[in-house]
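During the second year of the project, the team shifted from modelling isolated chains to modelling whole assemblies. The rationale, set out in the original proposal, was that interfaces cannot be judged from single-chain predictions alone. As a representative example for this report, we include one of the complexes processed in the last quarter. Its constituent sequences, exactly as entered into the pipeline, are reproduced here:
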Amino acid sequence: MTDSAAEIPIEGHPVLEVEHVTAGYGDTVVLRDVSLRVADASVVALLGPNGAGKTTLLRTAAGFIRATRGSIRFDGEDVTGAAAHVMARKGLCLLPEGRGIFPSLSVRDNLLLQSPKGEERASIERAVELFPILGTRIGQTAGSLSGGEQQMLALVRASVSNPKLVVVDEASLGLAPLVVDKIFDTLRQIVATGTSLLLVEQYVTRALDIADRVYLLNRGQIVFSGAADELEGEDVFERYLGIDVGS
Ligand SMILES: Nc1ncnc2c1ncn2[C@@H]1O[C@H](COP(=O)(O)OP(=O)(O)O)[C@@H](O)[C@H]1O
Ligand SMILES: [Mg+2]
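Output from the structure prediction step:
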């Protein structure tokens, strides 16, 4: 067990370094002295019970919440206090819980909005190649897609912007198991392009399967970090999070 990512040997150049961060909402402190790193071209799973602060940590890394203590580096550059749109421009793409698509816009317009300037055509082609089903739905409003199709659209939007790091908050929430398989296939495709992934996921086994490293967060603190295969076959929540399960 370790309480600081600073002590963890990490392979490769880190794309994201969260160091001793404290953050929350107004006077409410949610994260306390949290450190986490994502190495280049790697997958990190962030696991923990409801209310642990996982979403808060993702939003802090993405610039939506300002850390009150500690620092954040992205691709080697100090970005502490940088706003979300700045982080997006630097190549951090957050897929929020609830998908972050525009339900009243067409599938095409959702993709165009995320596409780099001048690459609109190529972006749409890539999206349809990845998910042929989106091609058949291209003129439909995103809100009329099924839950699984909406999540695929969200993932494809993330990949067309060609980010350095995709941060995914509970992509599989509320989806049928077969659709969840498809979502994980897409995540693997995104990783195969060299993009790093920071993933919050309720399906622990699937998350450990795809992840290189894992962090367990409980009550706003990192209670475990290590290689994902160290946890494989363990009852993660019982062993490391004890009585807090489901609280
Ligand atoms: N907008 C907010 N204002 C105040 N407190 C919040 C807000 N969002 C979340 N919280 C609180 O922060 C804590 C962590 O929440 P969250 O980061 O959503 O946890 P998780 O994603 O692990 O379920 C919870 O106690 C939650 O009630
Ligand atoms: Mg959450």
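The chain has a mean pLDDT of 88. The two ends are 23 Å apart (CA to CA).
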